[in-house]
Amino acid sequence: MGNRIIKIFDTTLRDGEQSPGASLDAGEKVEIAQQLERLKVDIIEAGFPISSPGDFESVKLVAGNVKNAVVTALARSVQKDIDAAYNSIKKAVAPRIHVFLATSKIHREYKLKKAREEIIKLAVDAVKYARKKVSDVQFSPEDASRTELVFLAKVVEAVIEAGAKTVNIPDTVGYSIPDEFSKVIHYLINNVPNINDAVIAVHCHNDLGLAVANSLTAVVAGAGQVECTINGIGERAGNASLEEVVMSIKTRKDFYKGIKTNIDNRQILKTSKMVSRLTNILVQPNKAIVGSNAFAHESGIHQDGILKKRETYEIIDPKDVGFKESRLVLGKHSGRHAFKEHVKKIGFNLTDEKLEKAFESFKIIADKKKDVFDEDIIAIIEDEISSVPETFILDYLNVTSGSRPNIPTATVRIKKDKEVYQDAACGDGPVDAAYKAIERICKVRVELVDYNIKSVTRGKDALGEVSIKVRSKKKSVFTGRGTSTDIIEASAQAFVNALNKIVSYDKKKSKSDSKI
Ligand code: KIV
Ligand code: ZN
Description:
Blueprint: E1 4-10, H1 26-39, E2 43-47, H2 53-65, E3 70-76, H3 79-89, E4 95-102, H4 105-112, H5 116-133, E5 137-142, H6 149-162, E6 166-171, H7 178-191, E7 199-204, H8 211-221, E8 225-228, H9 242-251, E9 259-261, H10 268-279, E10 296-297, H11 300-308, E11 327-328, H12 336-345, H13 352-368, H14 374-385, E12 393-400, E13 409-416, E14 419-426, H15 430-442, E15 446-455, E16 464-472, E17 477-484, H16 487-515
Parallel strand pairs: 1-2, 1-8, 1-9, 2-3, 3-4, 4-5, 5-6, 6-7, 7-8, 10-11
Antiparallel strand pairs: 12-13, 13-14, 15-16, 16-17
Helix pairs in contact: 1-2, 1-10, 2-3, 3-5, 5-6, 6-7, 7-8, 8-9, 13-14, 15-16
């Protein structure tokens, strides 16, 4: 394929802004254009100036602020459009006028009501008129991919003859299939005598989800410019996504031998976020390259692989596109390896035994919750490291409660020395009922002096943390803590934790007393 630099023509500010719901004011367009320059796109299509006075002003402002890239504006093949386009970009460092006219049978017959010869004449006149104003003129035969090939070749030859320096082949309605689109480009290269006097560009829409594939196949066939948008936004299902086109070429340089772009890929994420924020179009989490899940791994097998060698499950280094790092999401599919690494990362150094117990608690929580946050893990670990011998273990809890006349009742099962004890009690509320049942089983009398509950994490399935203070018969105060997605269970755990502390304290005390 030889060494070739593919020009990246960004149309986020024109076709991208045609996304339903997206509207950018002049200041926002300039902000994006300046970021597109940092991204090092070659051409910025700033708008369609005849479409509204606001768009005219925006394009003018962008043209005045862009320092290096070519700035282009769209125009139909009529003089008033070309005048507006010229007036909006004439102060640009490198201005280009982009004229278009539909060429397909369906557009000729139903939309334009013009014969083939008229189409060629209008296109040629428009290109000539634009060439009188600027030297850089691009022509697009709209709906090229549904245009009869022989006629398309005639149009392309005529506009190049008239002075177009770039001829763009749009797949306007996203109808093409890669093999077929590649043949269109090959056909033009082989059948348009003056084709080498212009750059062939492609502009693919994503109606069948093939915009990027069609653009890439066209590059292999000989296209020298790809038109695309950030995050793939654009009319209907959008345009080819810049980040996908660029990163495909870069990542598969073994396949696209010698083909490169000028894009600074480390600016990709920043640009994507800016465009999403300013257009109010969210990026789907699983979007290639820039989605929040693009470098996130949940399965234990994948996480283990990533920790051993990132390339086992990642074909792009996330840093290359602007992410800080890959993300190992702790959830129910995660394994020990990722858990251990994460625990270390958030600052805990646990023994193998404690780590194993924390991992077991994590798995129980992860089964109940969609997302396990760092705060959840910290709560689990704190439970593990504040280790008190577990004389009593809460084995089962069932509470019934409701508005009056229901009487809150709790059934509790506690394990002690491999034996299981069960009892039930009524109370003022479900927590009171559970505490009474636990007290009865454990035969430890206490007075509850403080009870606090807080949500450790966010969301409906947040972990609740209950901390309590109880006073023992000997008047000492002990604390107890429990965490669970069920606040009654967390309350019961906190109570059992406090009772275990009392028993442990009493045992230690009687040992030291007997030594005296
Ligand atoms: O999709 C299309 O055909 C266009 C042209 C104006 C290039 O956006
Ligand atoms: Zn388009």
